Amino acid sequence: MASTIPRRSAATVGAGSIASRMSALAILAEAEARLAPLSVATNLAWWESQVDATEENAERRTQAELEWSRALADPELFAAVTAVRDSGANGEAGRRLELLRDLMAKHQMREDLRARIVELESSVDLRFSRHRGLVGGVELGDTEIKRILRQSDDPAERREAWEASKTVGAEVADDIRELARLRNEAARTLGHRDWFALSLSVDELDELKLIETLADADRVTSEPFTRWKGAVDEKLAARFGCAVSELRPWHHADPFFQETPPEGAVDLDPLFEGHDIVALSRRTFDGLGFDVDEILAGSDLYPRDGKNQHAFCIDVDRLGDVRVLANTVQTRESAETMLHELGHAVYDLGFRDDLSWLLRSTHLVATEASALLCGSLAGRREWLELVLGVDQAEVAELGGRLEAARAAELLVFTRWVLVMNAFERALYADPEADLDAIWWELVSRYQGVTPPDGRNAPDWAAKIHIAVSPVYYHTYLYGAIVGLQLTAALESAAGGIVDRPEAGAMLREKLFAPGQSVRWDRLVEQASGSPLSVASLERAVARA
Ligand SMILES: [Zn+2]
Fold first, then answer.
1. What is the pLDDT along the chain (544 residues), one digit of tens a residue?
2. Which among 43, 47, 128, 211 could disulfide-bond with 316, CB atoms 3.0 to 4.6 Å apart, if both were Cys?
3. How far is the CA of 370 from the centre of ligand 1 (A)?
4. How far is the CA of 365 from the centre of ligand 1 (A)?
5. Ligand 1 centre and the CA of 281: distance in Å?
6. Ligand 1: distance of its center to the CA of 344 in Å?
């Protein structure tokens, strides 16, 4: 297929050693002028492919991404950027050069390789969007499968639903292995060990610090998680009339055990029935001093056939066109998701006006911190009372259980991130390894889930992030930790978060406004008052 892609020269910035002829600022101005419109085109094509998953839109998206990738692949520009950066450019120009270099690094590869990767990613993504599992002979989407796993008391039906959630894995596993091989090949030509190492490097994440932080996160969550899960397992065994040792993955409340089950949480869903989740979200951000009307107007918020079944936020043009895709229903999870995505959106709208295109962007950890902080509001007492309008007595009765539920959520989430990170490290270390076995070894080690007897299937491949958002999951954990640090900082400075415009103002000023003019780890320290550390996680999970 690669040969059908028209080859165009990407080197329009100039021939010869442009570094010697152009100043840092001239290189940056020209690169930004060239990249910005391509980025808009790619984002729009991506958006269309997600709201309407047709082959035609997938093809348009592929073409737009190839063009974007081709521009970023420009070897002369890359060489010029690297040379000028390394010659000691500093200040804002130096920062922009760093970001441009990191943005371009993953695209420095042979054209056929790049084209093959883009095509494969797009094709795998399309299969995820269109795939529906079969339960009782009926095609079901992810939301329906999850509903069965949350509600059904029939172990046979649960097992069927769980297995249906994995069938997409078998469809895409070979292509994901192939993607890993191709990504590794590209990373090695750039002198990196594998795609995992390259990804961390361009994301400004230190690998040793990551390994150390994850080991710390494992250490501080291991005991409380085991204790908490032991209690949940007892309840599950009683509910399904079996021994704890007979519990299998389908007894848990979601396909990957990545969310807190009803048994370990406070079921807030009845409180959300009859509520307009989108209106609640608007109300939440109003109370923080953020106007999200325009974002909501341009968004696609409700479930529909043929659209992406998950949720995301996209900053289309870095100039105000920010959209959210969601599949909103009347549950607490949906409220959390809307608040989460809008937590990304207000960040994208909060950059200082004078920032240039390269700086009008977010680091993954900082934007996830904002999103996770906003999403967590839906489980806080002050939000239930002030925004959802639950009466004081009822909220008081929920009392400490809300904090315990939040702690449980962090435990479940942290253990799941440990699985994902270790798995992706293994995948890129050796794409030919027995990944099916590695997956279940990690799931049982970190999540304490017993694999199905004699299971021999690529269950890992059913997790869409592994294919289309590779080497990303740990940023959720970093984001959650930073979100906890920010929550504590806002509570002490503004006395709370919900309906505190001063908390919103603090976020805007300290976290959002600088864009990426400040490196993420310094930004985190600036905004939350301390560097990233698992101390906040340790404190939070102690309440489980
Ligand atoms: Zn997010």
1. 333 333 333 333 443 445 545 789 999 999 999 999 999 999 999 999 999 989 999 899 989 998 998 999 999 999 999 999 988 888 999 999 999 999 999 899 888 998 899 889 989 988 988 889 889 899 998 888 999 999 999 999 999 999 999 999 999 999 999 999 999 999 999 899 999 999 999 999 999 999 999 999 999 999 999 999 999 999 999 999 999 999 999 999 999 999 888 877 788 989 999 999 999 999 999 999 999 999 999 999 999 988 988 899 999 999 999 999 999 999 998 999 999 999 999 999 999 999 999 999 999 999 999 999 999 999 999 999 999 999 999 999 887 888 898 999 999 999 999 999 999 999 999 999 999 999 999 999 999 999 999 999 999 999 999 998 999 999 999 999 999 999 999 999 999 999 999 999 999 999 999 999 999 999 999 999 999 999 999 999 987 7
2. 43
3. 9
4. 9
5. 16
6. 7
pTM for the full predicted model: 0.89
> For residue 499, how far is its CA from the centre of ligand 1 (angstroms)?
22
Are 145 and 165 spatial neighbours (Cβ–Cβ below 8 Å)?
yes
Which helix (H) or strand (E) covers residue 488, if one does? helix 473-494
Is the Cα torsion angle 173, 176, 182, 187 positive or negative in sign? negative
Cα 218 to Cα 225: distance, rounded to the nearest angstrom: 10
- Distance (angstroms) between ligand 1 centre and the Cα of 376 equals 12
| Long-range contacts formed by 426-434: CB under 8 A, 24+ apart | 427/180, 427/196, 427/460, 427/466, 428/180, 428/183, 428/184, 428/194, 428/195, 428/196, 428/471, 429/194, 429/196, 431/177, 431/180, 431/181, 431/184, 432/177
311 Cα–ligand 1 center, Å: 9
Residue 28: name the closest of 88, 91, 94 by CA.
94
Which residue has tokens 């607490």?
332
- Rounded to 5°, the CA angle 414-417-420 comes to 160
- DSSP state, residue 300: B
Question: 121 C-alpha to center of ligand 1: Å?
Answer: 20
Distance CA 496, CA 506 (A): 12
Q: What is the three-class DSSP state of 323? A: strand
How many A from CA of 375 to the centre of ligand 1?
9
Ligand 1 centroid–CA 502 distance in Å is 23
Distance in Å, CA 174 to ligand 1 centroid? 27
Using the mean position of ligand 1's atoms as its centre, give its distance from the Cα of residue 313 in Å.
8
Distance in Å, CA 341 to ligand 1 centroid:
6
Cα–ligand 1 centroid distance for 540 (angstroms): 20
Q: Tell me the β-bridge partners of 135.
A: 138
